[in-house]
Design a protein that fits this description.
This protein has 433 residues and is α/β, with parallel strands linked by helices. The protein contains 9 helices and 14 strands. The strands form 3 sheets. Strands 2-13-10-12-11-14 form a 6-stranded mixed sheet. A 5-stranded mixed sheet has the order 1-3-5-6-9, with no helix packed on it. β5 (259-263) and β6 form a beta hairpin. It starts with a helix and ends with a strand.
Length: 433
């Protein structure tokens, strides 16, 4: 009697291995394959019940055979590689042998136990196949790209506060006092690298909208205008590390756990804080949905996924800009140890830490002085600091002084970026009006 699980899994494993490099147009076939494999699992489960109950197996076996055969055909045509086609016959033969054994069990009750064992093995194999296909159809190969490039696409309109040129704005009257409080001699820090930072997800094809519950429900968005409730969270975020800040699949239970979703089809940005999958549902501390074609602020007094009530994604240092394009055309996000109140464009007060009236407000904008020499910096660092001269930085949250937020990417040179940032101190900056 052949061992069904190993042979049944063969073609599915090949599909999984190919999925990472399959073009987007193959995703429809992979989705259909996954659906057929799940149907096969259901049919086998029903056949197992029939064997145990000594019921009529004819319709159950027909359903199992039909579902598995459909999965076999779809698997062999998903990407149409020669190896899949060659394995198709082996899979069909193995399944046929197993199903014949189940059929004989109906005529010979003494064989019922062996048939039941075979169905158990088949069920495990097909369930594993469904799991594998879920993994390869949900992530980047099918319309979802983790930390993906946006091809120079601008986030928010050109006159949005993240995108405006502030290089000619006057210096604020309290600039020296603010810089002194944050730390004139404190070195800057790149709060991103090869394995840390805030990840983001680029959604290029329609994803199902998943409802969430929020701790700060009255200041959170449940649905985009004119849309059903929910956020387009990829299923892979439940089981795959890297989608949510902190590197824990499903978010875990500690840390900021930001989830940033750039939905290009809807032209919307979905962001959540303290995001968590508990095994049955998604929840978050807060959530905000931004129309990327609009300059609308959050309602006065409302938070977002960030303390200042601002969007997080447009203020990230991203490798597709600093490394690939060599240019960043927007302001960047930074933190300090203590804040009090907020100013435009922020909308939320998260007063924190010691310092009284000396603490800067969320929404504060600082700019690198034009006189700072960048010639000794690496090319990616020059792109970052050049943006700081032209667009500045916006104070978005409480944290460590002069920490600049970015997205993790395996291409960052952590040591060099750390050294380049450490060349810069608070004295190289000024507050702008």
């Amino acid at each position: 009697m052949p061992r069904l699980p190993r042979r049944a899994l063969g073609p599915v494993l090949v599909v999984a291995a190919l999925a990472a490099t399959s073009p987007a147009e193959d995703c429809t076939d992979l989705d259909a394959t996954a659906a057929a494999v799940r149907a096969a699992a259901d049919a086998i489960g029903a056949a197992r019940s029939g064997v145990v109950a000594r019921a009529d197996l004819v319709p159950l076996l027909a359903g199992a055979h039909g579902a598995i055969d459909a999965a076999d055909v779809l698997a062999s045509t998903a990407a149409n590689p020669a190896e899949l086609v060659a394995m198709r016959t082996t899979l069909r033969d193995s399944l046929a042998t197993g199903l014949r054994a189940v059929g004989r069990a109906e005529l010979h009750p003494t064989r019922r136990r062996k048939a039941r064992k075979m169905l158990v093995r088949a069920a495990r194999a097909v369930a594993k196949a469904a799991e594998l296909l879920d993994r390869v159809t949900a992530p980047a190969a099918c319309g979802v790209t983790l930390n993906g490039a946006l091809g120079g696409e601008q986030i928010f309109p050109a006159d949005n506060w993240w995108n405006v040129d502030v290089s000619a704005r006057p210096v604020a009257a309290n600039s020296d006092a603010v810089i002194d409080f944050i730390g004139r001699n404190t070195r800057f820090h790149a709060d991103f690298g090869t394995d840390f930072g805030i990840p983001y997800v680029v959604v290029d094809s329609a994803q199902p909208l998943t409802p969430l519950t929020f701790l700060y429900d009255d200041e959170s968005d449940h649905a985009a205008p004119g849309s059903a409730p929910g956020y387009p969270i990829p299923p892979a975020a439940k089981t795959t590390p890297g989608f949510i800040e902190g590197g824990v699949a499903g978010g875990g239970s500690s840390g900021d756990r930001h989830l940033l979703l750039v939905d290009r089809g809807r032209n919307l940005l979905f962001e959540t804080y303290a995001t968590r999958w508990n095994g049955t549902a998604w929840s978050a501390g807060s959530g905000a949905i931004f129309d990327l074609s609009s300059n609308a602020r959050r309602p006065e007094g409302w938070t977002s996924a960030d303390a200042a009530g601002l969007a997080i994604f447009p203020g990230l240092v991203r490798a597709d800009e600093a490394i690939d394009a060599g240019e960043i055309r927007h302001a960047l996000r930074f933190t300090v140890r203590a804040t009090q109140g907020y100013v435009y464009p922020a909308s939320h007060d998260a007063t924190h830490g010691a310092g009284g009236a000396s603490r800067p407000p969320l929404g504060l904008r600082v700019r690198m002085k034009a006189s700072v020499d960048l010639s000794a910096m690496s090319a990616p660092a020059r792109a970052v600091f050049t943006a700081m001269k032209k667009y500045g930085l916006i104070l978005a949250d409480n944290g460590s002084d002069w920490y600049v937020t970015g997205a993790l990417d395996p291409r960052w040179d952590d040591e060099r970026m750390h050294d380049d940032f450490a060349r810069v101190t608070g004295d190289d900056f000024e507050v702008v009006e």
